[in-house]
Amino acid sequence: MASTTSRLRSRAKPASADSGNDRLDSHVLESLVGYNTRRAFLVIGAVFAERMAAYGLKPVDFSVLSLLAHNPGATSRQLCAKLDILPPNFVNIVAAMDRRGLIERKPHPFDGRAVGLHLTPAGEALVKEAERAVIELEAEASSKLSARERETLIRLLQKIYL
After folding, report:
1. Burial 66-80 (b: 16+ CB within 10 A, else e)
2. CA 37 to CA 49: how far, in whole Å?
3. What is the edge-to-edge ordering of all strands in the sheet holding 103-107?
4. Burial level of 63, CB count in 10 A (0-12/13-18/19+)?
């Protein structure tokens, strides 16, 4: 865990030579929401990928499993809409999770044409462990922020995409 924390810190501030000729003026880039969001994602995303590799999960897999853990019986349509995934791409995600024995399909209780997706006991155990690991990672990655700053950052980012 200490190596992951130091990796987060080392990626957050890349080593650079401080001689006068090596410094780059990045004030325009650093004033851009997209640039800063991408830089933060690169730091967190790399450690996320490393930690989730132990569970065999990519970000989209984690997101689907987490949504199903908290919304049993959600339909493919609902999940695609929430995660902005095209239905043809989602078919492969569901098929892979089904092959791993993480999810199962059951008839939807209100819509005879729809199928609800549910976690299997193995899926429930996996997502519980994976969520715990991601929550720990997020705490480490945002440790320089106060709880209030973290909440504000999340709320402001959501204003962009919600």
Report:
1. ebbbeeebbbbeebb
2. 17
3. 74-75, 115-119, 103-107
4. middle
| Every domain of the chain and the residues it spans | 2-11+30-161
> Can you tell me the mean pLDDT for 6-11?
52
Q: What six digits make up the tokens of 59?
A: 């970000």
In 3-state terms, what secondary structure has residue 35?
Answer: helix
Conformation bin of residue 101: beta by default, left when phi > 0, alpha when psi is -120 to 50: left
Residues 6+ apart with CB under 8 A from 150: 142
CATH class for the region spanning 2-11+30-161: mainly alpha
The pLDDT tens digits for 43-99 are: 999 999 999 999 999 999 999 999 999 999 999 999 999 999 999 999 999 999 999
What residues does 115 pair with on adjacent strands? 107
What are the tokens at 84? Answer: 């902005």
